Amino acid sequence: MKIIHIDDSRLAIKCTQLFLQSVFDDACINSYLTSEFIELIKNNETFEDVDIIITDLLMPDLPGQDIIKYVKGVNDKTFITVLSSNIQHGEKMLAFDNGCNYFLEKPATLEKIQKLREVFYAKR
Amino acid sequence: MQKDDYNSIDLDFKDSIQELINIGLGKAAKVISELADSYVTLGVINLYPSKAIPQLPVFSSYVVVQEVSGNILNGKTVFSMIDDELIKLLKHLELIDSDYDHLGIQNLDLILDAYQEIGNIILGNIISSIVDYIDERVEIKLPYLSDKKIFDAKDETTYIIVEISFTIDKLNANGNLCLINDLSSYEQLAQKLINQE
To answer: Closest chain A residue to B116 measured between Cα atoms?
Structure first.
């Protein structure tokens, strides 16, 4: 299993990664700052082998809503989760319209990541 | 308008502001509690209109600012923790070593990044909960670090200032939040809330 996590904050990446490693203990987890993820896109990455992509929304250079649209455009099967503090109803609806499968409210907690695992396997 | 003038504001308007602030505070307490894995005490220490933006009631070198713009709500939200208090939270998050007792050049980028992200998490949640409550939507902009002079001295807008303090019980750490929105935003918010009721 492969998981990609994208955020513009190293704190968010570090904290979320700890929970992800604990809950998805069999997964290969790769975390990227926005600038690093942009390089993947430039290299025409299709994310075919990626099971879950977790992205923040509010990021410089590349908003999370654009990431959702890009990933869904190249690979409709990847399960996309938003992890954001912009939890407005309208923002959630836009994310779902763009192809997001699940929405997590920041901060990440063990319980929230466990719920993500449940939802992921239920929808698989 | 000075602090005392707040007494002359319409009672329904004040009630509406208070209700919206309570929504934001409830969300803030939940989010800080999740971050720190601790009970959080949180309260409004000051609420007043002001033409000149006062020096914010914080002693940290920098504050985290998040701006909001929308049809109804426009303004800035501010988060601050003084260095010693921030260190307690960062140690809890295992971002800095437990024997680290001051914010030096070492790891400064990481610490400022964390400060900004913690502010973003708290402020974004507060704003979202308030605008959802009145069925509105706003653009929440990227957070940034600023010194305390965050307003243009020539700005003639009247703002409603809400100063909030919080304590993370388990860490015995304190911090401040400040909501700064123009008066007309609050007037529209209050009117929408009254119409909803």
So the answer is: A9
